[in-house]
Amino acid sequence: MTQPQEGQNPIMQFVPLILIVVVFYFFMIRPQMKKQKELKKFREDLKKGDKVVTTGGIYGKVLEIQETVIIMEVEGQNRLKIDKAAVVKDMSDVAQK
């Protein structure tokens, strides 16, 4: 086994570990936090008439917005009461094309 060199600073042994943590933060954690922030803003900006998709894949149009719940209309005049956190995508732009 090799012994650490006498002149080497013991803190230098932790530099690779610290670099791994920094890289992990910038490539994994930070983008996820940014994505969550954008999704939260999207949910706060929902308005009546927006066409959306839920986490379960249900497509519908927002009829009413309450504090934590939205009422959405799906095909055939059916209405669903859905938690706001379940709305993940705005389809208004796609529907116009």
TrEMBL record:
SMART domains: YajC. This is Sec translocon accessory complex subunit YajC. GO terms for biological process: protein transport. It comes from Labilibaculum euxinus. The lineage of its organism: Bacteria, Pseudomonadati, Bacteroidota, Bacteroidia, Marinilabiliales. The chain crosses the membrane at residues 12-29. Keywords: Cell membrane, Membrane, Protein transport, Translocation, Transmembrane, Transmembrane helix, Transport. GO terms for cellular component: plasma membrane. The keyword rRNA-binding does not apply. It is found in: Cell membrane. Belongs to the YajC family. PANTHER family: SEC TRANSLOCON ACCESSORY COMPLEX SUBUNIT YAJC. It is a single-pass membrane protein.
